[in-house]
Write a structure and sequence with these properties.
With 301 residues, this protein is of the alpha/beta class. The chain has two domains: 184 residues, 3-Layer(aba) Sandwich (Rossmann fold), CATH 3.40.50; 86 residues, UDP-galactose 4-epimerase, domain 1 (Alpha-Beta Complex). Helix content is 40%, strand content 15%. The chain contains nine helices and 13 strands. A six-stranded parallel sheet has the order 2-1-3-4-5-10, sandwiched between helices. Strands 11-8-13 form a three-stranded mixed sheet. It has a two-stranded parallel sheet with strand order 6-9. α1 packs across α7 and α8 packs across α9. It is globular, with a radius of gyration of 19 Å. The model has no long low-confidence stretch (mean pLDDT 96).
């Protein structure tokens, strides 16, 4: 199976290319890694030429503009990158009878519910910010492209992604903790936003599971097991790293942002072909911590 991955240099794209390289169904050539040079979200018109050139059979669309505050500043650009570009790709795949798996986000839901239930795959979308709105539109245009056409389209929603190459929540919060500790102050961390921290390695392996089983079609919620607040995530990270920062929980209203994140960003996981849910987020984080420790040691030299 010839699998192409858009956004191959991104956080999830890197993990996907690595996971697919070990998958027996991709053959000796491995996955096709598309960077911005191959598929540019700002210039998606020629994607059919790239599909024909590389003879892809399945495309995993991981490329996206994920700067949520940037999306809030320029909603039109967000729609162009996360919806219009997805539409071009979906039409090109559908007209060729190719399968497409679009990576989406928990932010297609506004997170305003207060009943404590996770969002299921069949609930109406209700984005509460420009990023979520652009991704919800991307989901819809992808589905529309495959109506009455060959090929399968699927949506994978996840949340709170982290992993190499860094510049993610664990990396940033550790740097903030260092600054707070040096200043003799507690670290203020939001305590009223909830989600499921998800390691890109685990998400990538789950996507490979879906592809290998031929279960692309439909909507899939794929997250590491369990729920945490931002402050709870930070506490567990500090415990595993051995950082002695003191956390002061604050409401999200403390931070003035251009985007409004969902306060309840919890997705109900859907069954994977293996029958096994993703491991608890704390266990996944433990696999990432050694890399963070090495990076911190190198920076301290």
């Amino acid at each position: 199976m010839r699998v192409a991955v858009t956004g191959a240099n991104g956080r999830l794209g890197r993990a996907l290319v690595a996971a697919l390289a070990d998958a027996p169904f991709t053959g000796p050539g491995g996955p096709i890694a598309w960077t911005r040079t191959d598929f540019d979200l700002d210039a998606p018109d020629d994607v059919g030429t790239i599909l024909d050139r590389d003879r892809a059979e399945v495309v995993v669309h991981a490329a996206a503009w994920t700067d949520v505050d940037g999306c809030a500043r320029d909603p039109d650009l967000a729609i162009g990158r996360n919806a219009v570009a997805t539409g071009h790709l979906a039409i090109a795949c559908a007209t060729r009878g190719l399968d497409l798996l679009v990576i989406s986000t928990n932010e297609v839901f506004d997170g305003r519910r207060t009943d404590g239930r996770p969002y299921a795959i069949d609930e109406p979308l209700s984005p509460g910010n420009s990023y979520g709105a652009s991704k919800a539109m991307g989901e819809q245009v992808a589905r529309d492209a495959f109506l009455n056409r060959r090929g399968m389209v699927g949506i994978v929603r996840s949340s709170w992604l982290y992993g190499p190459p860094g510049n993610d929540f664990p990396t940033k919060i550790l740097a903030a903790a260092d600054r707070a500790t040096a200043a003799g102050e507690p670290l203020r961390v939001v305590g009223d936003e909830f989600g499921s921290p998800t390691f890109t390695h685990d998400l990538a392996e789950a996507i490979v599971d879906l592809l290998g089983a031929g279960e692309v079609r439909g909507v899939h919620h794929v997250v590491n097991s369990g729920v945490a607040s931002r402050a709870g995530w930070a506490r567990e990270l500090f415990r595993q790293v051995g950082h002695d920062a003191t956390i002061e929980e604050v409401p999200s209203s403390t931070w003035q942002r251009e985007s409004t994140p969902p306060p309840w960003g919890v997705l109900e996981p859907t069954p994977l072909p293996s029958g096994e849910p993703l491991r608890p987020w704390q266990a996944a984080l433990a696999d990432y911590v050694p890399m963070l420790v090495r990076q911190r040691a190198a920076a301290a030299r």
